Amino acid sequence: MAKIKKPKFKRVLLKISGEALAGPEALGIDAATVSSISSQIKSVVDLGCELGLVIGGGNIFRGSTGEKGGLDRVTGDNMGMLATVINALAMQDALEKLGVVTRVMTAIEIQKVAEGYIRRRALRHLEKGRVVIFAGGTGNPYFSTDTAAALRAVEIKADVIMKATQVDGIYSADPKKDKNARRFKSLSFNEAFSRRLKVMDSTAFALCEENKLPLLVFDLHKKGNIRRAVQGEEIGTYVHA
Q1: Residues 53 and 163: beta-carbon distance below 8 Å
Q2: Which CATH class is domain 11-240?
């Protein structure tokens, strides 16, 4: 029997876009896709890794899009934060069907469906081996779920923030538009900033850099990648202090 490789990172904050949950559809929640992602997450939990999760809400509603349509920005962002709660509940249901004990904690209090976010309680859940899904963004408008992910990662003292995306890392240019674009295996925060690479939004990126929190960007859709990332295999792009 092959020896199971131990996780390189003990505590991880995983960031997934809301669009990833839509699967082949442009909007909404695709049950098969959520089930596939939850299976990957379970494989990480089975390794003994403590996992926090932040999911975007773009598959349901994006505040910046609403603003373009004439919606008040604060209202739109509040709607977007509520969308992340819907995604969190969907992921919680899928994980618990696999036997993974999960807690949803929201920055916006919705007591009948989730716990309010309290840092000490979140840390206790993680120590007990529960997956904690942080929903509701930061609880404030004008901040993205990237920023929420970076903030929660710093608060729970995560070893790394892992951003599972639609591409397999950070490129010198958009690989869909530029055939000569090259993927970086490793970058410093300074290099990423000087090259003006779109890694995360500037607030989230600055928070990671200031707190020396490394960032790994990799392809979510390749089966087993979340586990590979946690085990320290060379995938995606690693951004470090």
Answers
A1: no
A2: alpha beta
Please report, for residues 30, 73, 161, 195, the alpha-carbon distance to residue 90 in angstroms, rounded to integers and kept in the order given: 10, 26, 22, 37
Model pTM score: 0.93
- Distance from C-alpha of 100 to C-alpha of 47, rounded to nearest angstrom: 12
Q: What are the DSSP E strand ranges found in 136-227?
A: 160-165, 170-171, 183-184, 186-188, 215-219
The pair of structure tokens assigned to 222 is 């390749």
- pLDDT tens, position by position, 208-237: 999 999 999 999 989 999 999 999 999 999
Per the document, the length of the chain is: 241
**Which is it for the CA torsion 45, 48, 52, 58, positive or negative?**
negative
CA distance 69 to 85: 23
Quote the CA–CA distance of 94 and 227 in Å, as a whole number: 18
pLDDT in tens, 91-147: 999 999 999 999 999 999 999 999 999 999 999 999 999 999 999 999 999 999 999
DSSP 107-148: SS--TTTSEEP-HHHHHHHHHTT-EEEEESTTSSTT--HHHH
Neighbours of 81 (CB within 10 A): 25
